[in-house]
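Quick bug: EpsG family protein output formatted oddly.
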Amino acid sequence: MNYKESGLKSFEALSVVLILLLSLYPLYSLISHYTGGDQVAYNLLYERFASVSNARELFSVAQSTVSSYEIVSPVVLWLGSYLGIDKNLYITVLNLILLSLLVISMRCLGASWLIVLLLIFNFYLIVLFTGTERLKIAFIFALLATFGGRKFRLLMSLISILAHFQMIILLAGLFMFFNAETYLRSIKDVLASWKLDRNIVIGVFSILLICFVILFVPGLMEGLINKGTGYFRYDGFNPSEFIQFFVLAVSFIIARGAKVGFKTLVFILFFFVVIGLLGGERVNMIFFSATLFVLLAEKKLVMTRVYSWPFILVLFYLAVKSVGFVNNIYLYGNGFYRG
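Here's what came back:
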């Protein structure tokens, strides 16, 4: 989207720099102590990348080590290893890039500093900082997509998907929300007069472009199939996942004025179906990201607005939830440790 008066003032820019400086050591410390969980595989991947000599070997190593069939994130991680940069330092730099883009985009969208502060300590963001290298890289490009025009957004969105396939869920959900009513009207117009709306043409072209990339880039189709079958093997119905989804959905609806329109219904039902199919842990993170972006884009997340407070309370809860996660990192080397 194009930000209205999005240029940061001097005070804003200095504030962002200060946040990054204050975050440098904590971020480095977190990733240095996170030695368990997915980081075992990612540390091994980074070591193996140091001896990779060609693209074929690069993607083969990524597939065998972390089951990655993406294109972008392995290249980004290989670059740091190839340059001989310490992994913890390199990931810290990526985390700082993610944090800076998040803060700048949130402020440009009109988020108050309290909202920004709650997001910095948000459980899902801490997870991105520590245990999900590929998803972190994907979110960096997704945030870049919020700056610039339509072509730039499309390019960054595509790169984001190629960094982690789960971004298809986020971008598809946002696309449905912002275009559902337009498409409904366009379909009615097409049925009535057979005239095509410009947005429908762009939407169909975007879908065809993504399908073309998936079909003709070597390994992508196989990767999607393998990832999909892997996610379908999750442990089944988990009440807590749906409770988290329900709380997020209700607070989102209230923040939008307690009105459930067509696009809101499509948006929520889409994520509900995805959670039912793939499980809720990662999808709830993506659903939270989507709801947050929508509320900020629509100027619905305002401290002085009563309807905003249920969602703001969710932000407080997620900030508190991160304390236990961080504690587990320092005690056990794994934020998701269960004794």
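Actually, after a second look the formatting is fine. DSSP finds 16 helices and no strands in the chain. Closing.
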